[in-house]
């Protein structure tokens, strides 16, 4: 009796194992992106800022037709970020170099974005150029709970009494399909005046971000935080490497640490903008450790990338291969932006 049952038991075991091994896990995938829009201005003169060039009568001859073309191109680019795998436009998009709420409202009304039904979170910054940061979100995926613009106070290193007005970081807390997350959207001070001479400004911006992250983690050590922006510094710059101190490897990440997946791309020479035949990776997205626990019952980091599809690349001429910017020395180029967007995928196990 035992001799006849043994082969039958083995056959059943092998069949069960084969069926089990054929089962595949299914994951839901969402895209979180950041995009520098390269001076998305309306055509009206704002008396409180230096935007006179971006008017029909200004130096840039910024007409309504050009403005509408720029909107259409920005909207199309946003709609495509991460779509190859996520099959959807980004559920969260951090933005910078935009003039005001009006341009955001015009942007999300573009036909290619209407299906996403993007909500807008925006505060006016005191930047002298009149540019701000903002967050777009798809309300069917993300429900905002609280938002605040943190003031970045800077003074001129040569004239300590002179205030430097720049972009304030935007902090948004909410629920991504029921999971609480926090986002910090940045546009740090530029390198105008030289990298070294201006570095203290970006280091102050980094310190403010560090305080925000520390404050969120003091309330909840397991806080799931995404820090994104145009940092005007690379992953290896002092502001990021020595102040924010993100880890660049996923092994044995301490609980309250940041992880910067963009560092690996930068080491390969991949960038989001080009200058004098070299690439920089100023546009970055970093995440706190709870996004890397590999417990896919919640949304976890999958991978990071730069969105540099062919239509965003300068096709010919002196700057062939660079981001296809929308404005150059000859005026409006019909391009997109001088920065490529960057993005991360978040994935979650779908129960069958």
Q: Radius of gyration from the CA trace?
A: 23 Å
Succession of helices and strands = HEHHEHHEEEEEEEHEHEHEEEEEEE
Figure out the total of helices.
Answer: 8
The mean pLDDT is 92
Quick summary:
By secondary structure, this protein is an alpha+beta fold. It has a single domain, classed as Deoxyribonuclease I, Chain A, CATH 3.60.10.
How is this structure best described in words?
By secondary structure, the chain is an alpha+beta fold. It has one domain: 4-Layer Sandwich (Deoxyribonuclease I, Chain A). Helices cover 26% and strands 28% of the residues. The protein has 8 helices and 18 strands. It is globular, with a radius of gyration of 23 Å. The chain starts with a helix and ends with a strand. Residues 1-5 and 8-22 have low confidence and may be disordered.
List keywords for this structure.
disordered N terminus, about 350 residues, Deoxyribonuclease I, Chain A, alpha+beta, 6-stranded mixed beta sheet, globular, single chain, 8 helices
SSE blueprint:
Layout: H1 2-22, E1 26-40, H2 64-80, H3 83-86, E2 92-98, H4 101-108, H5 111-114, E3 119-122, E4 132-137, E5 142-149, E6 154-155, E7 163-164, E8 170-176, E9 179-187, H6 195-219, E10 225-230, H7 238-244, E11 258-259, H8 262-267, E12 273-275, E13 278-280, E14 283-288, E15 300-306, E16 327-328, E17 331-332, E18 342-350
Parallel strand pairs: 1-2, 9-10
Antiparallel strand pairs: 1-18, 2-4, 3-4, 5-8, 6-7, 8-9, 10-14, 11-14, 12-13, 15-18, 16-17
Helix pairs in contact: 2-4, 6-7
């Amino acid at each position: 009796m035992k001799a006849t049952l043994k082969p039958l038991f083995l056959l059943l075991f092998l069949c069960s194992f084969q069926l089990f091994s054929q089962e595949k896990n299914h994951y839901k995938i969402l895209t979180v992106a950041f995009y520098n829009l390269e001076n998305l201005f309306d055509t009206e003169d704002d008396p409180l800022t230096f935007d006179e060039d971006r008017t029909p009568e200004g130096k840039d001859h910024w007409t309504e037709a050009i403005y509408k073309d720029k909107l259409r191109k920005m909207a199309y680019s946003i709609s495509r970020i991460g779509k190859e795998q996520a099959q959807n436009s980004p559920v969260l998009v951090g933005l910078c170099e935009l003039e005001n709420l009006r341009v955001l409202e015009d942007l999300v009304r573009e036909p290619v974005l209407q299906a996403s039904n993007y909500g807008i979170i925006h505060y006016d910054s005191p930047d002298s150029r009149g540019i701000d940061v903002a967050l777009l979100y798809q309300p069917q995926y993300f429900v905002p709970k609280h938002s605040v613009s943190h003031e970045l106070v800077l003074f001129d290193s040569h004239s300590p009494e002179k205030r430097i007005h720049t972009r304030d970081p935007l902090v948004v807390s909410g629920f991504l399909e029921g999971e609480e997350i926090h986002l910090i959207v940045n546009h740090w001070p530029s390198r105008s005046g030289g990298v070294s001479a201006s570095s203290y400004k970006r280091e102050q911006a980094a310190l403010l971000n560090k305080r925000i992250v520390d404050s969120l983690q003091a309330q909840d050590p397991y806080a799931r935080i995404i820090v994104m922006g145009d940092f005007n510094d690379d992953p290896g710059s002092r502001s990021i490497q020595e102040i924010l101190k993100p880890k660049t490897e996923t092994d044995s990440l301490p609980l309250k640490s940041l992880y910067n997946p963009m560092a690996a791309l930068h080491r390969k020479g991949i960038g989001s903008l080009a200058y004098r035949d070299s690439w920089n990776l100023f546009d970055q997205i970093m995440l706190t450790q709870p996004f890397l626990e590999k417990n896919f019952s919640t949304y976890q980091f999958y991978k990071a990338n730069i969105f540099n599809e062919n239509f965003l690349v300068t096709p010919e001429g002196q700057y062939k291969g660079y981001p296809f910017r929308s404005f150059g020395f000859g005026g409006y180029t019909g391009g997109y932006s001088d920065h490529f967007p960057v993005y991360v995928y978040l994935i979650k196990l779908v129960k069958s």
